[in-house]
Structure formats: structure tokens, C-alpha cells
Amino acid sequence: MLVQRKIFSESDDKVCLFTYGSTGTANELASGNNYEHISMERDLRKADWGLCSHIQNTIQATDHEVDFMDALIVTSTYLINQINSINDKKEKKKISEGRRLIMVFSNLDNPVATDVAEMKDIIEGFKDNKIEIHFIGPNLSSAAVEDDNQPGPSTGASNSSNGGILKRKQIIK
User: I need a surface site. Which of 20, 57, 135, 172 has the fewest CB within 10 A?
Assistant: First the structure.
């Protein structure tokens, strides 16, 4: 739906698509067991019907667990590298003044292995590079972030999964 809006609005915004929890691994930071099951599905360019079709017909849920912080690191590194590789001064200025947005569609139900100190450094890196992160998914309302005793469906996450809920709160806030 968001991609379709970009197409219909004839937006000049550029979009890339990464999946995490994917069966394969296709990203520039992958080495050994690091950043596994994170795949760049499409490079940074204007949204088009091919992207809509790819999302609708190709993206499938899997059972692979991935720390969403790893996915954010891979995605933000790619975004920064793409911005830094632009040689045209006019284009570079336009991008530096525009929004840098990463949208995460997830229930954030996977364990979080990143420790809190490292997470704070990563968040500072996002701020330094003017990257905004928006989370879209079930139980990600501000009320749910503030109060774990909120009635409603369970996310399946537990406090014992490396302090996962507390770490999620740190990022979402």
C-alpha cells in the first residue's frame, strides 16, 4: 500500500527493500555467521510496479530468527553508503536535506542479542546520520510500549529473551 502511494503520487522518493528472517542472506555486511538471513530484495530507486509485484508475490514469512538490530544496522549502512556514493552535487544536496527513513514492518517477536550499551551507540549513529526509524506492527502502540500489562494479544516475547522487551522499548522510544 505504501509503495503504491509512492507510485501514484509520482514521488521522487527512492525506496529500497530489505527483509530480515529471510531464507537466504544477501547483504554487504554478511560474513560467516554475522548478519545472516537479512537480504536486500531491491536496491535504492524510485518505487515502481515491479516492487509492488515483488512484495506481493515473493516475500514469504519464515521461521528464521534475526535480531532486528542487526537488520537496522545492515539497512542503515546500505543507506549511508548509497548517500555517500552520490557524486552529483545537486542530488547530494537534495538527499542531505531530505528525510532518511527506515520503516520496519514487524511484530519484533525475535530475541534481541544486542546489549543496551551497544544499542545506545547504534541509536546515536542513527541520530548523527539523520535516520528516522518507524516501526509498524501489532502491539507497537505507545501505550503498549509504556505498559507491558496492557490487555490484548501477546507478542510472544518474554522478558527472559535477553531483556527483549526492555530493549525494544529503548529503540521505539
Answer: 57
Q: Which domain does 40 fall in, by range?
A: 2-172
pTM for this entry: 0.75
The domain tally of the chain equals 1
- Pairing relationship of beta strands 100-105 and 131-136 according to DSSP bridges: parallel
pLDDT in tens, 57-82: 998 888 899 988 999 999 999 999 99
CATH number, position 76:
3.40.50.410
